[in-house]
Amino acid sequence: MIIIQSPVKLSPKAAGEIKKMLDTGKIPADHGLRIGAREISGGVVSHILGFDMKNEDDNEYISDGIRVFIHKNQVSQLAGMTVDYYDGPEAKGFTFMI
Length: 98
Hints:
The chain has helices spanning 12-23, 75-78; strands at residues 2-3, 9-10, 31-41, 44-53, 58-63, 66-71, 82-87, 92-97. By secondary structure, it is of the alpha/beta class. The strands form 2 sheets. It has a 5-stranded mixed β-sheet. It is globular, with a radius of gyration of 13 Å. The two termini are 27 Å apart.
């Protein structure tokens, strides 16, 4: 089942960079963008972003034409976040913002 509105938004920059990655053909066609969270230690949470196949415990969303998978148990932890892409002189990469 595909749920239309994703609890995590993709900024225009992030969506553009993800689409570039998907367009290279190096990501298998049956993969989507996995967004997740895991507790590292002492309540510190690390966010996960990568390409993966859908699992049976995932919700699937479409955001800016990109398939997004989020484990059902992590939706409430990630709701309201935005994935952005930073490209500056000292670093570049994806960031999670509240």
